[in-house]
Amino acid sequence: MSDLTPWQIYDLLNRKKPLWLNGSNLSGAHLRKAELAEADLEGADLSGANLSGANLSFANLNGANLENADLSYANLRGCMLDDANLSKANLYEANLRDAHLVRANLTEANFTDALLHQTVLKDANLQNANLEGAHLRGANLYQANIDGVNLTNTQLRGAMKPDGDIYE
Fold first, then answer.
1. 1-168 domain in CATH 1.10.3720.10?
2. pLDDT digits (tens, 9 = 90+) for 109-138
């Protein structure tokens, strides 16, 4: 569980932005619709956190643990998630346009109907992830592991395949 009380979290969310929460333990925290744009959450533990509808645009989440986190409807546009763990995370209808997820662990994550235009997923592990109905136009999947991925109705035109070819 989070090292911060709900009142401490509330106080932090109402301070001048951007927030600096580098390495913080926010596991299991209730941050639904939180305003975290440009926050520095590098290396933070957000496992099991409820970030549904949160604004994390242009936030630094490099190396963060978001395993089992609820990021449905979240705005992660331009977010840095290199080396982050999002295994089993729920990203239903999340906006990850222009986000960086290099070497990210995305195993069994749910990206149903998510927006991933121009997203960099180089060397990411997407094994058994659900990308049904997701929009990956222009995304970079170079050397990504897509074994067992559900690509039903996924828009891949212009995206780079793991082997470097481009989806037609």
1. no
2. 999 999 999 999 999 999 999 999 999 999
Instruction: Please give the structure tokens belonging to residue 99.
Output: 């986000």
Where do the structural domains in the chain lie, given as residue ranges?
1-168
64-84 pLDDT tens trace: 999 999 999 999 999 999 999
Cis, bond preceding 162 (omega within 30 deg of 0): no
pTM for the structure as a whole: 0.91
Concatenated DSSP letters for the chain? --SS-HHHHHHHHTSSSSPB-TT-B-TT-B-TT-B-TT-B-TT-B-TT-B-TT-B-TT-B-TT-B-TT-B-TT-B-TT-B-TT-B-TT-B-TT-B-TT-B-TT-B-TT-B-TT-B-TT-B-TT-B-TT-B-TT-B-TT-B-TT-B-TT-B-TT-B-TTPBPTTS-B--
